[in-house]
Write a structure and sequence with these properties.
This protein is of the alpha/beta class. The chain has 2 domains: 133 residues, Periplasmic binding protein-like II (D-Maltodextrin-Binding Protein, domain 2, 3-Layer(aba) Sandwich); 95 residues, Periplasmic binding protein-like II (D-Maltodextrin-Binding Protein, domain 2, 3-Layer(aba) Sandwich). Helix 2 packs antiparallel against helix 9. The termini are far apart.
Length: 266
């Protein structure tokens, strides 16, 4: 009888100590990833990342940020970032602790990235008068492609375009691109599918070419020189967000706004 009770007490003590150790580890992660006491998540205010609804920020990006904070055992603060370029300044100024954004050389120089979590399908919008029907027909001499400046897809196009000409426009709005096409100064607009769908009404009869020439890699970003425990925590988080289906459900909740947004392949 005594042996049974003693064994039970030993097991209970082990479970308790395990729980204490786990709580201690979570507290350590919380302190490391959120040094101010709350996790400040930079959320891009692009319609296929985040939308404001009745004063609340909703979308797959804030959903992931909130879940990350919960797993770290700290409160969260969603920090709206309206221009992707401003994410760099937010990290440099110490205003945010983590984000989800496309990987570019400029951003990689300002903050570190963990594993890729989301992919944004990218293709081209062409006017009604265009004879271009497929992505493979874009890279021709004389074809002028409008592309957002300082964008991940722009960096990729620089690697694969040999004959067409690229024209840079501000990333904040699609109007400069559609204006160039409408006035005959450009022949195609390259962007992620959600933005092309948003631009399409400005060009009646225009077509979004089928397929994707590049799935823009969206990864978790955190400050340069983050402790190894933070790096590993973010890596494990991304793996679980994919495997558990959490990321896919967060995308699905956005409906048509997230057309062209996919969970990145392992």
């Amino acid at each position: 009888m005594c042996r049974s009770i003693c064994a039970s007490l030993v097991l209970s003590f082990a479970v308790m100590m395990g729980a204490v150790a786990q709580a201690g580890a979570q507290a350590d992660i919380g302190r490391q990833i959120a040094p101010t006491g709350k996790l400040r998540v930079g959320v891009l205010m692009l319609s296929y990342f985040t939308v404001e609804d009745a004063g609340m920020l909703k979308g797959w990006s804030p959903d992931l940020g909130i879940e990350l904070a919960q797993r770290a055992g700290v409160p969260h603060e969603l920090v709206p970032i309206h221009n992707p370029a401003d994410m760099i300044e937010a990290f440099k100024a110490g205003k945010i602790d983590v984000t989800f954004i496309g990987i570019t050389k400029e951003r990689s120089a300002a903050f570190d990235f963990g594993p890729v979590l989301i992919g944004l399908r990218t293709t081209f919008l062409v006017p009604a008068s265009s004879t271009i029907e497929r992505i493979s027909e874009i890279d021709r001499a004389g074809v002028r492609i409008v592309v957002p400046a300082r964008s991940a897809q722009g960096e990729h196009l620089e690697k694969i375009i040999a004959n067409a000409t690229m024209l840079r426009v501000p990333v904040e709005t699609t109007k400069p691109a559609t204006d160039l096409i409408a006035t005959g100064q450009a022949d195609a607009f390259s962007h992620v599918v959600p933005m092309l769908a948003k631009a399409q009404p400005a060009l009646p009869g225009s077509r979004i070419l089928p397929g994707s020439y590049y799935d823009v890699p969206i990864a978790i970003g955190y400050p340069k020189g983050s402790p190894p425990v933070v790096v590993e925590f973010c890596k494990s988080f991304v793996t679980d967000m994919k495997a558990s289906g959490f990321a896919q459900k967060a995308i699905d909740r956005m409906g048509k706004l997230a057309d062209g947004v996919v969970v990145a392949m392992p």
